[in-house]
Amino acid sequence: MFSTTFRALVAGGLTAAAMMTAAPAMAQEVSPEWQKVIDAAKLEGSVTIYSAQGLKQLNALAEKFTETYGIKVEVVRAIDADLIPKVTVEFETGRGIADVVVNSSLLAIADQEAKGYFVPVIGPAFDNPDYKREERMPRGVSFESNATILTYSWNTELVPDGIKDYDDIFRPELEGLIAIPRASVSTIVDFYFYLHENYGEDFTDRLAAMKPRIYPSALTAAQALSSGEVAVILFGEPQIDEKAIGAPVETGFAPSIWGARFYVNTMKVAPHPNAAQLLANFMVTPAGQEAIARKAASALPNIPGAVANMDDVRRPDPAKLTAEAVTAFQEKFTALFGSN
How far apart are CA 36 and CA 45, in angstroms? Predict the structure, then answer.
């Protein structure tokens, strides 16, 4: 159930623009209407976020949000394939646990949005021109927060001469030592489409001949890289933190950057609807971006710690990333690499 404050604002047709009393440059001024949301969120006392974003970034976001508003954040980090059914059960039973949900699966998000899982966000930060609301929230519900840059990296002890690009992995000595992601959701399927577009339609077939090792997530693949279990990963965050603590790793970037765009929503069955709105808004402020977009692509310009802006990241083509195309590729992937 929505709280009185949030229900009244939505029923009154209040938009983020109407809630602002000043231009985005004066965003520190809070309108009376938005202050009511803040006050109600503080009374709710906590907020839960389900997200496939990096755990360190999520914890940093939670810490900054709590410092700002005094509201506890419960972080539940999981991959898209685990979050999607979990959110479905909560919506269908009406027993919400998640307040804010973040994942990168465009197909799943569009399906859940169409079924009414989510409510629009109403915070003032979305009207900052630098955020580019029309581009990053085209349907007025799901919004983009950042994009994880997923690229290739190598173990410098096992590959001392490095990797120059994705098509530089086809070396006999790397057979059996390359980590790839399973094509479990549409986001990862799009990554393989990107490889086909840039390195040839036969890229996946050539990859299969290298007998790669399959990992369920970018995090587990990165751990395998640092330990020397594999020599190269094709799908991982820039190994900045790992290198800083002494891991023998290095990261490279292709001329065309691929990234997983993260789509954020506030749940219709959120137990803390005002805190959900407040956290969603915070995610697209400079302070929120500095936390969540570290080592990633930011939705705002000039964010410390970000490695790119979302404008520089390839955007998936919905016309190519259809349910039929995704299923067809997943079947091919299983035929080439097995189901384990």
Answer: 14
Determine phi and psi for 224, rounding to 5 degrees: -65, -35
Instruction: Please say if the pLDDT value at position 17 is more than 90.
Output: no
Give alpha helix (H) positions in 266-322: 273-283, 286-292
**Per-residue model confidence as pLDDT tens digits over 67-105:** 999 999 999 999 888 999 999 999 999 999 999 999 988
Separation between Cα atoms, residue 59 and residue 55, nearest integer Å: 6
Query: Does residue 287 register a pLDDT over 60?
Result: yes
User: Distance between CA 235 and CA 238 in Å, rounded?
Assistant: 10
DSSP state of 180: E
Intervals of CATH 3.40.190.10 along the chain: 4-146+261-306, 151-257+316-337
CATH assignment, 151-257+316-337: 3.40.190.10
Q: Which residues pair with 179 in a beta bridge?
A: 213, 233
- Gap between the Cα atoms of 141 and 84, Å rounded: 17
Greatest Cα pair distance in the chain: 66
* Mean pLDDT across the chain: 90
Pick the CATH number of 4-146+261-306 from 3.30.9.10, 3.40.190.10, 1.10.10.60, 3.30.70.1400: 3.40.190.10
Does the structure show a pLDDT above 60 at 5?
Answer: no
Provide CB contacts within 8 A for 271, sequence distance 6+: 48, 96, 97, 99
Write out pLDDT tens, residues 137-155: 988 899 999 999 999 999 9
Paired strand residues for 236? 151
Surface-to-core class of residue 70, CB atoms within 10 Å of its CB (0-12 exposed, 13-18 middle, 19+ buried): exposed
Q: What is the pLDDT of residues 246-279, one digit of tens each?
A: 999 999 999 888 998 999 999 999 999 999 999 9
Structure confidence at residue 256 (pLDDT): 86
pTM, two decimal places = 0.77
